[in-house]
Amino acid sequence: MPKAQETILEIDLKALKHNFEYLKSKTKQGTKILGVVKAFAYGSDANEIAYYLQNLNIDYFAVAYVHEGISLRNFGIAKPILVLHPQAINFKLLIKHCLEPSLYNSKILNEFIKIASEENQSNYPIHIKFNTGLNRLGFDANDIDYLIDKLKNTSSIKVASIFSHLAASEDLNEKAFTLNQIQSFKNITENIIPKLGYKPMLHLCNTSGILNYPEAHFDMVRTGIGLYGFGNSEKENTHFKPIGTLKTVISQIHTIEKGDSVGYNRAYKTENQIKTATLPIGHADGIGRQYGKGKGFVTINGQKAPIIGNVCMDMIMVNVTNVDCKEGDEAIVFDKNYTAEELAETAGTISYEIITGISQRVKRVYLK
Asked: What does the pLDDT read at residue 151?
């Protein structure tokens, strides 16, 4: 791989293929796979990631919001796209671009039926979400009769799938809770399908659900973080390859004398003479202000260099006293060896927050 000459995010599409194929190998035969590409495909690049996965014959995509789905359509993504959290103001655009809404309460259901009818739609595909314990979005099991009444009194929509979301599938200490969610979902679907008169797709599992609860794969599974290289456990992480490498370069090296300070608010004061390197990446690029003060590091020539002082908007300073380096050398924020998960752990957060926070001003480079 070429050395960085500026701040870049390298995206390894071969690693993406590896992760997809591993997840496919863990999914029961005949089960569809939905790739979650919301939030710029977890901070990478939704268009490029979806296009690559489409060529691998993935079955479905999901985004959070309508504008994300429109971007995919404009890039040539033809696969079905589920919009997990649509807003009524965007329903006409959603229909125009053949996106499929998740409907999760009576208000949004009625609003979509109204718009779909006004747009002269017939059997427009929708996805009904039930709440089985995450307590975020979703109809309640007690809403089934209400739903059936609404669905049987309109020809404008048709249920493409019924789904729910596991709350703690990665935490085997919560296995009893997860098994209860799975059973609740089964009860709901066994109740609603005979009343509906046809069988929509059923899906419940996220990445950790795929890996830990094969009995709950149903007709389709959804994977987000797994595609990007994380398995939510030390054991499973060994099977995945992180697709992103965030690199930057040393702009300047300073010798800081004993008693001097580094950065804004004099947040770091030296006890001895040290050497620092300034890197062109900061909180506007996704390196939060929680780093520094003993939290976080970059890797330069295979050696760890701790982040010190306050993270600036466009720069960070790292301690390179014991690192053999010079101006122009590459610095790695995270890669396959020192992952985003390890960086996150130093600040008490999770890999999701690190990778989805990478600014769009960071140049993306694709390794094919």
From this structure: 97
Class for domain 244-367, per CATH?
A: mainly beta
**What are the beta bridge partners of residue 222?**
34
Q: What is the 3-class SS of 184-195, one letter each residue? A: HHHHHHHHHHHH
Judge whether 80 and 201 are in contact, CB under 8 Å: no
Alpha carbon distance 69, 99 (integer Å): 7
Cβ atoms of 243 and 224 closer than 8 Å: no
CA distances to 134, 198, 260, 283, 293 from 269, in Å = 45, 69, 6, 21, 10
Q: Would you say 199 and 233 are in contact if contact means Cβ atoms under 8 Å apart?
A: no
Inform me whether the pLDDT recorded for 100 exceeds 90.
yes
| Token pair for 232 | 């939510």
Gap between the Cα atoms of 368 and 365, Å rounded: 10
Measure Cα distances from 201 to 44, 150, 251, 303 in Å: 29, 19, 53, 50
Which CATH number describes the domain made up of 31-228? Answer: 3.20.20.10
Ramachandran area for residue 338 (φ above 0: left; ψ -120 to 50: alpha; else beta): beta
Task: Return the structure tokens found at 53.
Answer: 């996965």
**Is residue 174 classed exposed, middle or buried when 0-12, 13-18 and 19+ CB atoms within 10 A define those classes?**
middle
**Every domain of the chain and the residues it spans:** 31-228, 244-367
- Beta carbons of 331 and 235 less than 8 angstroms apart: no
Residues labelled as active-site residues:
38, 264
296: left (phi over 0), alpha (psi -120 to 50) or beta: left
Q: Alpha-carbon distance 126 to 196, whole Å?
A: 14
Name the phi and psi angles at 79, rounded to 5.
-65, 160
Q: Are 302 and 347 in contact (CB under 8 A)?
A: no
CA atoms of 259 and 252, how far apart (whole Å) = 20
pLDDT tens-digit map of 278-294: 999 999 999 999 999 87
What global pTM score does this model have? 0.95
Cα–Cα nearest to 41, from 32, 50, 33: 50
Query: Maximum distance among all alpha carbons in the chain?
Result: 78
Q: Are 367 and 355 in contact (CB under 8 A)?
A: no
